[in-house]
Amino acid sequence: MKTLPRLFENNRKWANQVCAADPDFFKKLSRQQAPEFLWIGCSDSRVPANEIVGLLPGELFVHRNVANLVVHSDINCLSVIQYAVQVLKIRHIMVCGHYGCGGVRAAIEECPHGLVDNWLGHVRDVVRKRHRELSEISDADRRVDRLCELNVIEQVQNVVNTTIVRDAWNSGASLTVHGWIYRISDGLLQDLDVSVSSDRERDGQP
Question: How many CB atoms sit inside 10 A of residue 53's CB?
Fold first, then answer.
């Protein structure tokens, strides 16, 4: 079972289905990568970025990590954003969390979780900033879901505060950063209405 034959068979079926619908699809795909969108999402296997928004390979540039974080010391994430903005010239960055996120839940649990606790310290920063609001929610699941929303909002701010995005706006690029959240139980996205398209909007100006 070292070769995982089922996955290779699935791959062949998928490739054949794509070719049946568009015989030149892979030839065209291999010649260019020109997505308009960058998706920054959670690593959760139940949140497949392309499928959620109905886009084909090549139409969505994707970065995923536990709890969909944008950390200013994370060279991996920043490199993805830089390549997307400066090379691919994407027009939209979507930070997308999901309700019931295990990483977010772990961030407010009292028990240790090992190495990941270091990463989730960034979510705990959100907990501290929003402590009053979160403490008023008595239901534990609702509290986690609200923290999932607040975490997305915080990460949108982290994206728009990068020098990459600010330099793009200063050079006249058309670029909008969005905050979305996904509900696994019904497969639907929700816009959290925190989109930012310029330095003025970032600073809260009309």
Answer: 16
Residues 6+ apart with CB under 8 A from 185: 99
**Annotation says 22 is catalytic:** no
**Residues 192 and 150: beta-carbon distance below 8 Å:** no
Catalytic residue among 42, 77, 96, 148: 42
Instruction: Reply yes or no on whether 130 is catalytic.
Output: no
Does the pLDDT at position 205 exceed 80?
Answer: no
Is 44 a catalytic site residue?
yes
What is d(CA 4, CA 173) in angstroms, rounded to the nearest whole number? 44
143 a catalytic residue = no
- Looking at 18-32, 144-158, 169-183, which range is the least confident one? 18-32
pLDDT at residue 3 is higher than 90: no
